[in-house]
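Pinned message: reference record for Acyl-CoA thioesterase
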Amino acid sequence: MTTPENTTPCPEHRGLPAGRMPELRMMPAPSDANVYGDVFGGWIMSQVDIAGSLPATRRANGRVATISVNSFVFKNPVFVGDLLSFYADIVKVGNTSITVNVEVYAERNRLQACTVKVTEATLTYVATDSDRKPRKVPPLETLLA
Ligand SMILES: CC(C)(COP(=O)(O)OP(=O)(O)OC[C@H]1O[C@@H](n2cnc3c(N)ncnc32)[C@H](O)[C@@H]1OP(=O)(O)O)[C@@H](O)C(=O)NCCC(=O)NCCS
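Predicted structure (tokens):
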């Protein structure tokens, strides 16, 4: 099993993005590992989908459905026990769709302060009504009112 205690030296360390709040923080468990002991890509993808849906849901002021994973890059492996921070930013708002960029950082070897960017993805969500049909994203002014 690969754990934070026996990983290779830190490939980069720039700390977490300054002045930004992660949408989600998670720590993968042994049950999230693949047969090699690293964290299963599908587990990471599902957390990224959840993290991206949070700002999309707020912007849509209601339910959204994921229509597309536009890009997904696993830049570095994720290990059991890494503390993952998911940052999500809306990059485009269409008529019914909202596209979100998600960046994931792992804090590993935490006593030695090692932070690694592990994943970057872009996903598109569609605002949906109670019949699961697309609905217009409300104007921003109506949300701030
Ligand atoms: C989401 C859903 C309701 C959209 O309905 P649809 O009839 O396919 O959507 P439309 O063709 O009207 O397109 C809706 C929006 O998605 C965008 N879109 C469609 N296909 C897309 C694609 N491959 N990539 C990115 N955006 C896409 C359209 O451009 C449109 O955006 P806009 O209104 O801002 O211009 C429907 O596709 C669906 O139910 N999909 C399954 C969702 C799901 O189960 N997700 C997994 C669990 S959440």
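Pinned by admin. Summary line: The chain has one domain: 4-144.
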